[in-house]
Amino acid sequence: MEEILEILEKDGRVAPEEIAKMLKKKPREVKAAIKKYEKEGVILKYKAVINKDLVKSEDSSVRALIEVSIVPQKDVGFDKIAERIYSFPEVSSCYLISGTYDLLVIVEGKNIHTVSSFVAEKLSCLENVRGTTTHFLLKKYKEDGVILKHREENKRIAISY
Amino acid sequence: MKIAKKVEKMQPSGIRAFFDLVLGMKDVISLGVGEPDFVTPWPIREAGIYSLEQGFTSYTSNKGLYKLRLGLNRYLKHKYNLDYSPDEEMLITVGVSEALDLALRTIINPGDKVIVPQPSYVSYGPVTELAGGIPIYIDTIKDGCKLTPEKLEKAIDKRTKGIILNYPTNPTGVSYRRKELEALSKVILKHNLICISDEVYGDLTYDFEHTPLPGLSGLKKNTVYLNGFSKSFAMTGWRVGFACGPKEIIAGMTKIHQYTIMCVSITSQMAAAEALVSGKKPTEEMKREYRRRRELVVEELNNMGLSCNKPQGAFYVFPSIKKSGLRSLEFSQKLLKQEKVAVVPGTAFGDCGEGYIRISYASSMESLKEALRRMKRFLNKS
What we know:
The structure holds two protein chains of two kinds. By secondary structure, chain A is α+β, with helices and mostly antiparallel strands. Chain A contains five helices and six strands.
């Protein structure tokens, strides 16, 4: 992977000028490269990774993984029906997968009821959806490479040869 | 109580007091650390845990686990085209530190001289003396901290038994290209010196391929090659190193090792064996991160007037602080007190290190940036 991407994937807030220093390039070149990545959709967006368990707020949310079996359509296969599903704002992720079902859909809602009613009233009744199995998420351990737990840090001796 | 004279004579390192000062202070950003800031990659840690679960809690053979030696044989063959027999030419040690001590004790007769280019790692001189040898220091500061064949030739006399090389070098980060090593090898072979080559930072070479000393024509029979897992795989606390060399020397080293150490912890050896299998990718990732930090640090230091060459390896830079008008220890003490940034005075690595400091960039990018900001402020004030 391009090193600029490696740096930004770890920390989306590093300034182009600093990346330029790290890679021994001109700031202008780095800016241009980032712009190009953004334009091509290689870099889609920059966001903070938030541990929602620690955020006290009324609009807490629940997540569910939903296995969806669908009937593929002529010419467009799974794509058309997938689009109909992932366009719902409740859907945070949607994947076509191999195995015993077809789409893995991750849905977020305020509580179990909102997710259930989304499944019952929106998802299941779509044409071409053969069936769904809903798994509610109980606990998050690791998300997108980030371990969601504060660990005691091992302190190195402050000075050594 | 009278302790042995040669131990009494050993320098307790002039900067011990400074170290104690650092250790007693809170919230210090330390650029004085000589070990990676990464944690050992998980598959390696997991292999250690698994070996405990399986009940591997015994001694191993004195030479080290056969599995590990065989792994090293393959690793060195693949990486450097070096062929060392796991049975006769290899010994697993408690870090490179032990291997260095064993090698020196094995080759030195009382009064033998051993050449040590400086600035150098702190233990080379004292351990040579403990083994009964006389360290002959060569000041390399004016040659960009690199030993030149001319200076080497000049330092050799009839009592010169060997030379300790270390590249990439702690504390300067300097390394040698193949051509430069070949030039040195001519002098080494001419005088039939034994080389102890500490290449523990070999995997952290950024601008060219690392050339192991025994890989040079004619030098394998003269060289004890030392390396370890600490720096390549972020495994300092596991304490695993190894020595490869001519079988007579390895046999001698093994004799001392079996009476003094017996063997390296089996858990650590099991983890090290796994490092050879799955450690390549994490090592490459760490290396890229170190290289990025190096570019940033070198540029910032030069910008603030602490001039330094770009080091080719390890994770150290060795900038000159002459601009500040302070001596190394004074500079380090003031920087610590005023800005809470810890560095190591260059004098820790030999008298010729006066006027320099060692900065380790084995720290997160954030800490590095903050430390550099503070150093800049410090220089503007003084």
